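May I ask for a protein sequence together with how it folds?
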Amino acid sequence: MTRFRRSYAPQRATGALLALAAALALLITSGCPPQEERPIRVSVNSTNGNGQRSPAEVLELAKAEGELFWYTSLPEADAEAILAQFRVKYPFIRTHLVRGGSFTIAEQVANQIASGRVQADVLHLLDPATFVQLRDQRALLYYDSPEARYIPSQYKDLGYWVALRAVTLGLAYDPRRLRGDQVPKGWEDLLRPAFQGRIGLKDAETAGAAYALLFLLRERYGTIYWQRLAAQKPRIFKTVAQMEEALLQGQIEIAAGDVKERPAQEAGAKGLAVVWPTEGVPMMVGPIAILAAAAHPNCARLFVDYALSAEGQRLLVKQLGDYSLRPDLPAPAGRPPLVQMRLLLPTAGWADYAAKRELLRKEFSDLMGTGGE
């Protein structure tokens, strides 16, 4: 039997044979069309290695986890109402609510991440800057919710955060006290001498919506506007509820920011009306996202899907009176559609909005004399 031995040494060939081989190769390849260059597709997984799963897999894993920790700046009653309906759909999940001001909750989550002991599963704040920063730190779980496709691209960082709601910032007043020409029509009307000491603002050091007002009106009118507004000696409040109560009690005449209409239930009763300035209505979005180190990521996926679904969004709009950015849902009752407003949004995007936050919050503190208190 003839045995063949595999050899890795190059074989010798004459020049004629090499030339013949080259000619044959050229003849063969010249008659074939070139192969199309195919792009290399890379699948993106989550930052904690979990990746996308089928709905059935998520459901089974969520049953094993059985818990959800939601950190949010929503008012407690509204957040609890949303969680209650979520539990109707998923009764096997025990829910835990942790709420506070946007910047307070953001600091808590940052401390958890830094210590390596993350309790929060899902985060929702009225502050896109926090989510931009967490995304840059690789602290958000990659999850492309099927419900995210309904939200326009400018209101999400696909796979990381999606706007759960949108808040328009306007001017509220008590129609029992201000009438006709006394009612402000726009932002520059706040500079009237008659309103000195009678304007309410939320503290931009502590509230996401207040920072949005600061940033967006500063872009629209420049720093000089805020210098002139500070000269009006506005009262600074920590919460919307405190500011609205001061307005109802006659302690201030105008409240600027995240304010809601409050129709009087009967003639002569207390109520609030809101003006949406035609020269521009600042709009703030509140993202929702899952933490990369979440202990219950699959319960979190179910919650994000529910919160962004048409059912969850209808409930949120009803509870809060804020806007859903889903085009298949109407505006809150009694509110104009967003398409009828001239919306003010960050001209350079949410990353620029995030980058300037600490600088502008200090600027606000210096102008208003709050000293971060």
About this structure: The domain at 170-282+361-368 is CATH 3.40.190.10 (D-Maltodextrin-Binding Protein; domain 2). The radius of gyration is 29 Å.
